[in-house]
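Quick question, first post here. What does this chain look like in 3D?
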Amino acid sequence: MSLEPSTLIASVVDKYDAELVEMRRDLHAHPELSWAETRTTDIVAATIEAAGWRVTRLERTGLVAEIGQGERVVGLRADMDALPVKDVTGDPWASTVPGVAHACGHDVHTIALTGAALALAEVADRGALPGRVRLLFQPAEEVMPGGAIDLIAQGAISGVERVFALHCDPGVDVGQVGLRTGPLTSAADRLEVRLQGTGGHTSRPHLTGDLTFALAKVTTELPAVLSRRMDPRAGVSVVWGVVQAGSAPNVIPDHGIVGGTVRILDAVAWSECETIIREAVIDIVRPYGVTATLDYQQGVPPVVNEARSNEILAAAVHDVLGPGARVGVPQSLGGEDFGWYLDRVPGAMMRLGTRTPGGATYDLHQGNLRVDERAVGIGARLLAGTALHALGVAGR
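> Answer (accepted):
Ran it through. Tokens below.
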């Protein structure tokens, strides 16, 4: 008797589980930065092409693959790049590349989608896939404005009716999945303000532009101005990561820099924010006799989960993990370029639990990040199950 598609997916992923974990460890030991994911692309391409997927390499790195027949197309996306972070886990599969680590879980995303590809290939082989599934193995999520824009430009989501993804969440236990309808992440931009003045002696600030004082004003007053110029419900957050000026305590410097990120929960406010910031900075520094130059890099829009797509994720979670696996998650101020896809087609992203129950809670983008490796197989089953639910064939 033939297996139901959802049962077949579980059996295939279970069969490959040990191999998938080893593949994830291999990627973790050999991380590649944005636009340099050559080895990762090669491994994924060879694995899924052998399973019957039609693979198209992208212009730089990454790939798109498709299986099945028919007009309906569902997309599944995984990001592939690592971060310029030192791996300090001490695990046997820790990064072998100095100063580079999979500190955001993209190795898990990549291999989870690879496992889903193996399972869906068997579903297609048995004639149980009435439609097409398209895999987006995307480079360069970690750099703004993100590799998603390149995939879109190359037609990667042309004809796709819905697109789905997952992201590791080290604050959620393995075996649980965080779901949220509506905004899941925030818009994220980068801002650098460069001040220029004449410089001078600290005994005579009235004879020069006190650039350091003006820089401090920008640092403290810009967030305050935005809290009054913009709707507080938009959740605008400016946080500085770099403040640089001067080299001697009795010298007023002639230049200085403050740089940070701007994060915004609301898409409409995101479209307005740059103009308001530029106006505010000029007004803040004007009394101090210095000039300001802004480098504002608009990054990524919020990820906004479409309601019906989130219901599809919920159905997949229920099938794969049971009724108690779904948990609510708050909107994050983190940025994710998956939002570019959702600007064009409906879709949703889920939060994949990676914390060992009772174990340590790690944070993303930190060199000590560890994941419970059971999440790899769970992610594979969830992604494959999501594709089946989106095509309306799960549990048949």
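The chain has a mean pLDDT of 95.
The first strand starts at residue 54 and ends at 57.
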